[in-house]
Amino acid sequence: MNNPLDLFAWKVRSERKRQHLTQKQLAERLGMNPRTIIDLETCQSNPKFETVVLVAKELNISVDAAIFPEMVNQTVSKTVVDRLLCREKRSRD
Fold this sequence. Notes:
By secondary structure, the chain is mostly helical. Helix content is 71%, strand content 0%.
């Protein structure tokens, strides 16, 4: 599973099942043809970026985390950075 779209497809299928949704139900929520979801999950198509974003948003999937999982642990959220900077500033005062 080295292809980023394969990783995304696996994540979509896993998350859809975790939420107890069928491919048809997910497609209906998104106003898409069920074939679009089937093709995405089975890597039978190269989905449009718009489709990737809509599916990811509906299933609450981070596109970055799904496509580049090795990079997720290398990033630090702005909130964490702000807290660390604030602590450092307080310790100096």
